[in-house]
Design a protein that fits this description.
single chain; about 270 residues; alpha/beta; Rossmann fold; five-stranded parallel β-sheet; 12 helices; 5 strands; about 50% helix; globular; sulfotransferase activity; Sulfotransferase domain-containing protein; Sulfotransferase_dom
């Protein structure tokens, strides 16, 4: 019922989003997109940047209830963003004061299309060590379902980390934990790719650096998105830097084996 109600609300807003997209100012700064792999700390980074005086995500540090799963599901299914989805961003750029901030992290795979629509968009691409991501993945059903339901999605699939060369290994040899390592590895390579291709639009950040050097990291982000830095900062949970310690020896071994397989078969 909730899904139906949400769909009705979306349809009612379609004309507004379409008009916003058609009449958008291509020279306007933004949006600012926080991207990366699931469970890499994109929520945390969004809350950090949300403290900037001239930046707003509108939803107070949570994902867009309208678009997050719509865009996520389209991305893993290898579908391009629709005019409706692009129009949502054009609409939100007008709705908020300052820069609109979005934390739909699968937009890492939509960088080219978003830059075509919004040439002055900025992307904050977050990296995090594979062990911490893997531990968090185990606790989050929404992210885990992508690997559990991998047979439902087209392949090859960059989002999942499935290439023509590793498809057989992915299907027949990997545990769900190891499939998630492939997803992580593919996302890390994608971050490096878009950062190299679009250096003026993509800034690479590391979760560990945010935790250890919050003030200087926020200052660097402020320079990158051309807006004043915050006067107060998010209280970072230092214990999140040690999640790998909660993995078992068997899980750590599985992760190492998956990384070795990724390096040997991902690209042939």
């Amino acid at each position: 019922m909730r899904r139906i109600a949400r769909r009705i609300r979306q349809l009612l807003k379609y004309p507004l989003y379409l008009w916003a997209y058609v009449t958008r100012d291509r020279q306007q700064n933004g949006p600012v997109f926080v991207v990366g792999t699931g469970r890499s700390g994109t929520h945390m980074l969004c809350r950090c940047v949300n403290k900037f005086p001239q930046v707003s995500d509108y939803y107070g540090g949570v994902e867009s209830p309208e678009m997050f799963w719509s865009i996520s599901n389209a991305t893993v299914a290898q579908k391009q963003l629709s005019i409706f989805q692009l129009g949502y961003y054009a609409y939100m750029m007008r709705k908020v004061d300052g820069l609109f901030l979005d934390q739909t992290h699968p937009n890492l795979w939509n960088v080219e299309q978003l830059l075509a629509a919004f040439p002055k968009a900025k992307f904050l691409a977050l990296k995090r060590n594979v062990q911490s991501v893997s531990y968090s993945m185990k606790k989050h059903g929404g992210v885990l379902k992508w690997v559990k339901n991998h047979t439902h999605y087209p392949k090859p699939n960059g989002f999942l980390g499935v290439t023509p060369q590793n498809a057989k290994v992915y299907q027949e040899q990997l545990s769900d934990l190891q499939r998630d390592v492939f997803r992580w590895a593919s996302h890390m390579e994608r971050i490096d790719e878009v950062a190299k291709r679009f250096p003026d639009n993509v800034m690479v950040l590391h979760y560990e650096d945010v935790g250890e050097s919050m003030k200087s990291t926020m200052a660097a982000i402020a320079d990158f998105i051309a807006t004043p830095p915050p006067s107060e900062f998010l209280a970072f949970k230092k214990e999140s830097l040690h999640k790998r310690d909660a993995l078992t020896a068997e899980e750590l071994a599985q992760i190492d084996d998956a990384l070795a397989l990724w390096g040997s078969v991902a690209k042939g």
